[in-house]
Amino acid sequence: MPKTTANGLTFHYQQAGDGPDVVLIHGLTGDLSIWFLSRTLAALAENFRATAYDLRGHGYTEAPETGYTSLDHAGDLLALLDELQIRRAKLIGHSFGAVIAAHAAILAPERVDALILSDPYFPSLRHLEDLSRWGHWQNFRKEAEEAGVTLSADTWYDLTTFFDQVLHLDDQRMLAFRRAVGLPGLNRVLRLARTTCGADSKLEAGLDAESIARISVPCLALYGEHSPFLSTADHLVSSLPNCRGRLVPGAQHRAPEEAPEAFVAAVLEFLEDLKSVSQSEACS
Amino acid sequence: MSAPVKASDILDELRRVFRDGLSVDPIEPITPGTRFFADLGLASIDAVVLGEELQKHYGRKLPFNEMLADLGAREERDLTIGELVDFLHKNL
After folding, report:
1. How much is the ipTM here?
2. CB contacts < 8 A (A, B)
3. Closest alpha carbon to A217 in A270, A143, A159, A164
4. pTM
5. Would you tell me which of A25, A124, A232, B63 could form a disulfide with A204, CB atoms 3.0–4.6 Å apart?
6. Cβ of A41 and B72 within 8 Å?
7. Least CB-CB distance to A59: which of B37, B45, B47?
8. pLDDT tens digits for range A29-87
9. What distance in Å separates the CA atoms of residue A52 and residue A33, rounded to the nearest whole number?
10. Chain B touched by A258 (CB under 8 Å)
11. A239, A21, A18: which is closest to A114 by C-alpha?
12. A88 with A108: CB under 8 angstroms?
């Protein structure tokens, strides 16, 4: 499998297609396979060089103990672009992957042509959302409970508590948890639980509301029709100078998994529109 | 190397790719009914790696990304070794 060293870490990545660069960034506890299973990578490869990679601590990339804020991940991304000789790219991120993409666009706007932000929730914008409504988290809590991991009702996507509980399960509960999530799922969680990922991903790390509002590259705020973060979606569309919003019908927080066809169609359409905009600019 | 045509040959080759490419060599031999996720305990990302290993092994491009996208669209997200044999049989 293709690997390269960036920022002192070994990253697993995959590439397909030829053309302008598009880079795909998965969310927390996921890996790059989401872009294969949702047909995103294959669809993009028809017109672009699409690159997907595993974030630090995820998939087949190394898992250092620390450095899991969006700032750290954005640093990884920019170093990886250097290693892969990608000068500029369109960034597509899902969930925390979109937070990383936004952070990279603030650190290095000259390297980011456009952003597709799929259902991000930003630590600095958490005041916008009524967190108790997040069905995804409530379902997750219920599933965890059935597998012997108790999370308090008021903690909001509390990966720190979750990781900590899983690390300290007794043998019998660990077995039950393993049955519930499967061995790969368990290994994924245990690996991240030994890092600062849980706490770090809740930090603003410099990505404050003012910086987000200054992102001026063409941007698509792509949210599930039933996303718990629609207030964030509205906020992005109204406060960024060049951001349009779009909903993925039928999806909640995980559009690439829940409605892959509609997700990919929205991605392709936005990229196609960008092309015609840049062509008309070139003509005028 | 000439491509194998018999399903039994492909199954043997697959076992080898699993062993050498993915370090998967179960005590119970892999059969057409073996499931990639439920029985071998592999994750989706291992399916991505398998695609690469198969293309390396056969020295040619295979429509494996299409196969993964079809897998992603399934209600019951698993893949039997028999389906992999069929896929290779069709595309080699």
Report:
1. 0.89
2. 59
3. A270
4. 0.92
5. A124
6. no
7. B45
8. 899 999 999 999 999 999 999 999 999 999 999 999 999 999 999 999 999 999 999 99
9. 9
10. no
11. A21
12. no
